[in-house]
Amino acid sequence: MAAHSESATAQRKDAHLDLCATAEVEPEINSTLFDDLRLAHCAMPEIATDDIDLGMELFGRRLRYPLVITGMTGGTERAGEINRQLAALAEHFGVAFGVGSQRAMHEMPSRTASYQVRDAAPTTVLIGNIGLVQARGIGVDGVRRLMDAIGADAMAVHLNPGQELVQPEGDRDFRGGYRIIEALARALGTRLLVKETGCGIGPDVARRLVECGVSHIDVSGLGGTSWIRVEQLRARNAHAAIGQAFAGWGIPTAAAIAAVRRALGDSPTLIASGGLRTGLDLGKALALGADFAGVALPLFRALESSGPAGAHEAMEVLLGGLVRVFLLCGCRNVTELRARPRLITGELKEWLAMF
Ligand SMILES: Cc1cc2nc3c(=O)[nH]c(=O)nc-3n(C[C@H](O)[C@H](O)[C@H](O)COP(=O)(O)O)c2cc1C
Predict the structure, then answer these.
(1) How far is the CA of 51 from the centre of ligand 1 (A)?
(2) Average pLDDT over every residue of 287-301
(3) 300 C-alpha vs ligand 1 centroid, how far in Å?
């Protein structure tokens, strides 16, 4: 039984990678709602690109850019190679890197090496990863062991009830979540990150997480990779139909970030992932209140289709675009960008009126 479920986890991860590499895993009906935000142009910026300082500290390390390559994979040889290449990319650009769920490593310790990328990223932020339901199963000590085994600076606990509910073999019992988060926050302190996986964390959940002692949240909202869609594409019959119906479920990334920041003030540290595809998206996420932007699918796809050089180029385009947002707004740093006049229209305005 154990052997079956162990190989099932690794097989599922490979199937996920295949789907994410080529299939339509970003349903067109979904939007981050960044299009509903306009930042005021500044025709006379009176600054040089050299004046723009986007450096930030995260989990005790200094980053050159406020960007996290969010957790994707691990557990197979192929996944290990992806982790190694993306970690090296993160090190080169001075951004943070997260490995994917370490569940496969917990089930099969022989897979540990596929998550061990510290040698490829010796100085930048490295983040471990485990699902909430698995964290509840293995407890605080188990989670800490996963983090320490890869020399991570912090541990991300991911929330994915939408995905689980579409997986035929997925979890159906989400009770006790806040209890394990509270225990983890007590044990790991500021080294704990709680993230969604593309359906968004709203102000109600964020507030309770902060009350549990959580200091870092990645809202990971709707508008990019949809795990409900990924599972729909893997599923047959009833689960495929359920996935089809729910592929647009979630809180758009722009709405999640603005609402959580407004509800909770300066703390916690916020990461915004979920559908950020251009440097302009990154800049808008920061303007709405994120401390860091997060990107997953585009860098994985660039690596799959064009190798490390392609991923390098994709990163240059993203970060180059981000710097240009600051230049065109005449802003030297994130504090100045947040103070810039902006226009919020359409559905984003309606979401913010609701929260
Ligand atoms: C191939 C792939 C695998 C992923 N696996 C994980 C995972 O194991 N753990 C996790 O927390 N998030 C996982 N995610 C979710 C991302 O970290 C991110 O929250 C989400 O995809 C939204 O970002 P994006 O639209 O830029 O892809 C994965 C995403 C992709 C594309």
Answers:
(1) 33
(2) 98
(3) 10
- Peptide bond connecting 268 to the previous residue in cis, omega within 30 degrees of 0: yes
Q: Which atom of ligand 1 is nearest to the CA of 224?
A: 25
pLDDT of residue 236: 83
Which atom of ligand 1 lies nearest, measured to the CA of 17? 1
* Amino acid making up residue 242: I
Rounded to the nearest angstrom, the distance between the alpha carbon of 79 and the centre of ligand 1 is 13
Phi/psi at 221 (5° precision): -90, -175
Indicate if the pLDDT at residue 1 is higher than 60.
no
Ligand 1 binding pocket mutation candidate from 14, 34, 67, 72 (most atoms within 8 A of CB): 72
Helix-, strand-, coil-residue percentages of the chain, each rounded to 5: 55, 15, 35
Distance 294 CA to ligand 1 centre (A): 10
Q: How far apart are CA 315 and CA 258, in angstroms?
A: 25
pLDDT attached to residue 282: 98
Q: What are phi and psi of 94, to 5 degrees?
A: 75, 40
Classify 158 as helix, strand or coil: strand
pTM: 0.97
Which pLDDT band holds residue 6 (cuts at 50, 70, 90)?
A: low
The protein residue with its alpha carbon nearest to ligand 1, atom 28, reads 72
Say what the pLDDT of residue 294 is.
98
Identity of residue 135: A
70 CA to middle of ligand 1, Å? Answer: 6
73 lines ligand 1 (CB under 6 A): yes
Q: Quick one: how far is CA 285 from the chain centroid?
A: 13
Tokens of 72: 């994707």
Give 107 Cα–ligand 1 centroid separation in angstroms.
20
Measure the CA–CA gap between 131 and 177, rounded to whole angstroms. Answer: 11
Rounded CA-CA distance 103/295 in Å is 21
Is any ligand 1 atom within 6 A of the Cβ of residue 100?
yes
pLDDT in tens, 162-210: 999 999 889 999 999 999 999 999 999 999 999 999 999 999 999 999 9
| Ligand 1 contacts CB of residue 269 (under 6 A) | no
Q: DSSP for 163-192, please give it.
A: HHHHSTT-----TTHHHHHHHHHHHHGGGE
